Give the backbone structure.
Amino acid sequence: MESLKRRNERGSIASEFMLVAAMITLVALSGFPAIKNALTDFDKRQKQSFVNATAAYPSALIRGAVAANSVEIH
């Protein structure tokens, strides 16, 4: 009976840990502007699959860096 109780406690702790890890991941993802922009861009183009949107993320990051470097200061 005692071992069953300990097993239940371990399962409960593991499930709580997974829940906390998922929440931290969601908060971290929502904090990165580049990922938010990629997801917003994905929402605008509903026809594109999520795999393609994920694959397009590095090129969007490069385009943003190039655009930031090409801004002229007057």
